[in-house]
């Protein structure tokens, strides 16, 4: 790997690990919580997560459209 790939890989591991730990703590407090992952960039992390989640790439835009259609 070159330096850019190594940095990118380290960031992926670090960010996904931080999210994993935050979700773990959240689920200890709220065991019935549903985890929703959103945003276009989030798809790069999905394969890293070991917890159950729902993924909606464009959830914010879907919400805006819902409001505008009313």
Topology diagram in text:
Elements: H1 3-29, E1 36-38, E2 54-56, H2 59-69
Parallel strand pairs: 1-2
Overview of the molecule:
- It is built from 2 helices and 2 strands; from the N terminus they run αββα.
- A two-stranded parallel sheet has the order 1-2.
- With 70 residues, the chain is mainly alpha-helical.
Q: What is the percentage of strand-forming residues? A: 5-15%
Oligomer classification = single chain
- Structural class, from helix and strand content? mainly alpha
Mean pLDDT: 92
C-alpha-based Rg, rounded = 15 Å
Brief summary:
By secondary structure, the protein is mainly alpha-helical. The protein has helices at residues 3-29, 59-69, and strands spanning 36-38, 54-56.
Task: Please tag this protein with its features.
mainly alpha; flat; 70 residues
